[in-house]
């Protein structure tokens, strides 16, 4: 009898530890955002601009890959035209105005500005395009927030090894300096690099992003080191040459999902998973002593030795490099979408390729079917995972100021996106819970303003709060229900679960 009650209590407690959060989040009807909290939306150059070879732009790694191996993309498509934002940027600004955002986060195409990869040649037409976009935003009081690197490396630099060549620290620094010089009089928020995990682990350690190198457990770790050093270089250049006169901020956007233990036996496994999958990039910048997380350093070094490598596959930082990288982000930029359940038992032996990051981490992850909102959703909805992540960031890194740079939901389409509305509301509510407990979160941006080229998924996954008609030459952008809900959240600076957006008019819709 006692044993049965004990077990019952344990189960209830496990449930209440992880899942009680959901109940708390959706119960309250109207929740206010604090004064000064800012809202925006996000996009990236290759996903929307098109005009891949116009006005002097040269190929980047996505142009190269999609032209050489089109069907590595699910629908064999590419970003040659995309939303044609290179020509239609005024329409993008129009929908940003109609939404009422505080800022718009977009990225620069390196080869549009520097077609030779290096600053020996600045392409005036490319500079003009970004000047036009920036000025159009400022005209309507929308802050431009720029990502320097959102995955479209110059193809020539890739041929020199890309993010595994130590010289990229100089190359990226040179590019950043030009961007600050050209646009920094008007742009005050700079993100250096978007999602180092995806750049390195998807692009160098796998076939999930360009340049699909698939050198697991080796190239991904090399990339990690030089992405972090290049980011730090761009930060120091701003600090030393521009901050005094331009007065802006420089930060990095990490991708971090939440990894929840499958059972109480998996708590250490889930901790390790969080360290290998995002701590690897966060720890060197945010931990008090910098450097890679100790568990990652030790595990990779031990496995490398056992596997016959003369040195760790995770190339260590020198003490000078540790100091150079530590503390180089004015905000903790966070891209978050979903949660995974993590376990570790015998079945992890031989589960992954050796070597690989996942074999080093010794974890197996999966998502639960009950986390789905419907049959067509492509992002599992787990708001309490977002809350747990924000709590861990607050506790592990001394409550840094956080910008949520990306959060969003993918579907296969339709204007009545009740599933996306539910996702956004519940994630914002979880964020407000973390803020009530002291998390210093200052901004929230939805990925994405518009449907766009979703990397290896092509145009098959739609993340936009505006739907895009890819058949129409003007790539017609139409507000979804979620756009109306988001507009009301920004107008009232509050989250109201009962608000029905059906009678919100989007005045600028007319005539398009
Ligand atoms: C490992 O754990 C998973 C998830 O709990 C389970 O499905 C699997 O059967 C376990 N494998 C072994 C070998 O114990």
Mind explaining what this structure looks like?
Homodimer. Its EC number is 3.2.1.21. The active site is at 406 (nucleophile). This is beta-glucosidase. InterPro entries: GH, GH_1_N_CS, Glyco_hydro_1, Glyco_hydro_1_AS. The chain is α/β, with parallel strands linked by helices and 512 residues long. It has one domain: TIM Barrel (Alpha-Beta Barrel). The protein has 17 helices and 15 strands. The chain has helices at 2-27, 45-48, 61-68, 85-99, 110-113, 124-139, 155-159, 168-183, 196-203, 219-246, 267-286, 294-306, 319-325, 357-361, 383-396, 418-436, 481-492; strands spanning 30-32, 38-42, 103-107, 143-149, 189-194, 249-255, 258-261, 332-335, 339-343, 364-366, 402-406, 441-447, 466-468, 477-479, 494-496. An eight-stranded parallel beta barrel has the order 2-3-4-5-6-8-11-12, surrounded by six helices. Strands 7-9-10 form a three-stranded mixed sheet. It has a two-stranded antiparallel sheet with strand order 1-15. β11, α16 and β12 form a beta-alpha-beta unit. The protein is globular. It starts with a helix and ends in a 16-residue tail after the last strand. The relative contact order is 0.13. Residues 1-20 have low confidence and may be disordered. It binds 2-acetamido-2-deoxy-beta-D-glucopyranose.
